[in-house]
Amino acid sequence: MDLAQSPANPKQETVLLIGVQQRGDAPRDVEDTLEELAQLTDTAGGCVVGHFICRQDKPHPGHYIGSGKLEEVADWIDLHRPSTVIFDDELSPAQGRNLEKRLKLKVIDRTQMILDIFAQHARTKEGCLQIELAQLGYLLPRLRRMWTHLERQKGGIGMHGPGESQLETDRRRIQERMARIRKDLEQVQRHRQELRRGRRRHGWALASLVGYTNAGKSTLLNALTDAQVKAYDQLFATLDPTTRQVELPNNQSMLLTDTVGFIRKLPHGLVESFKATLEEVVEADLLIHVIDASHPQVEKQIDAVRAVLDEIGAGDKPMLHVLNKIDRDDGAAAAPGLARALGDAVSVSAQSGQGLDDLLAELCDRLRDRNIRMALRIPLAEGKKIAALRAVANILSERYDQGIAEIDADVPVRWAATYEPFSKATDNT
């Protein structure tokens, strides 16, 4: 595996990558994630000039890699003079501090790299807030590493006692800033809920594109909706969700949302920060899992997407698998086997348009009999409405209180507008 390149210009940051193969790890898995880290480095604007794979039973508590390999890395750095070292796993604050002290240059980990790329690509206010929250959460336990050169502030007139250290001051400010960001994101969350409620009143089906980063989600959105979303051949080109209307062949309207791509070793803090955005996935009627059928590690990518969906509570949502990039030889060869393994898949090329008619036809079938969960309060005087509801909906529970029927039901979408005036959510607003 040769990842080394020559810098495009003298000012470009040069990077040494380090991966660790622990007991039980397959060699190919470590090589694949290191190649992915090289792609991330390229996306961030760096140039990989070398890499190491360290084989050891478990991470070293002080330096992550063993002392012998650390000396080998230090000798290589003295010879080749890279500007940055990037580890393919998350480092503890102590490990990062010790490595920088020994190697005498900047040391970051995979999590910090991903956060940096997200920060570069975020465009909307919401996206910037989500990234800032994730970055502050990552920074908080690492403040001591940044302030080791500072002494404690002195006490003085009016400030008897030990005073407050710069470290404690910064920690408090970061926590206050994180609290403000969470409040702002709660407002975003409420706004998105109102938008989804309005869409449901119109009977629109809600679908979300999910998948591994660079699988072709934005290209597929453009092909289906003429959304003109910029699609780049690089990781995490899309961070801010884009929603467009799709007219299906049966004249049903569907709203399709492009979401942030997933990746192996996706930082948990990043998933937490993007909850407001990822709610589009959780609340969707259908998930469209876009898969790069041409990728050599496509099964690993599918597993990574499923793991994130499980983490956000969307693992059991109805899903349609879309095997993309069949215009490439590798994709065309792999698609039939993947389709048999997945059981419910459509093969397409979002780039050339091949298979899109089959995809639209499948979407029509999937969304034809769609139901919406509704909590209703219907006056008993509206007996005909209650009788009609029993005839068309799946009644989950019902009880009667002071002339009101409180009914929880799965209601066909074509009846949703009829019963929206009786919705508890409408009453609360």
Main attributes?
429 residues, alpha/beta, Rossmann fold, Alpha-Beta Plaits, 3 domains, 6-stranded mixed beta sheet, 16 helices, 45% helix
Give structural notes.
This protein has 429 residues and is of the alpha/beta class. The chain folds into three domains: 103 residues, Rossmann fold (3-Layer(aba) Sandwich); 170 residues, P-loop containing nucleotide triphosphate hydrolases (Rossmann fold), CATH 3.40.50.300; 58 residues, Alpha-Beta Plaits. The longest helix has 36 residues. It is globular, with a radius of gyration of 26 Å. About 4% of the residues have low confidence.
Task: Work out the helicity level.
Answer: 40-55%
Radius of gyration, rounded? 26 Å
Q: What is the general shape?
A: globular
CATH second-level architecture of the largest domain:
3-Layer(aba) Sandwich
User: Which blocks of ≥5 consecutive residues have pLDDT under 50?
Assistant: 148-163
Strand content: 15-25%
In CATH terms, what is the fold-level topology of the largest domain?
Rossmann fold
Provide the CATH top-level class of the largest domain: Alpha Beta
Give me the strand/helix succession: EHEHEHEHHHHEHEEHHEHEHEHEHEEHH
Short description:
With 429 residues, the chain is α/β, with parallel strands linked by helices. The chain has 16 helices and 13 strands.
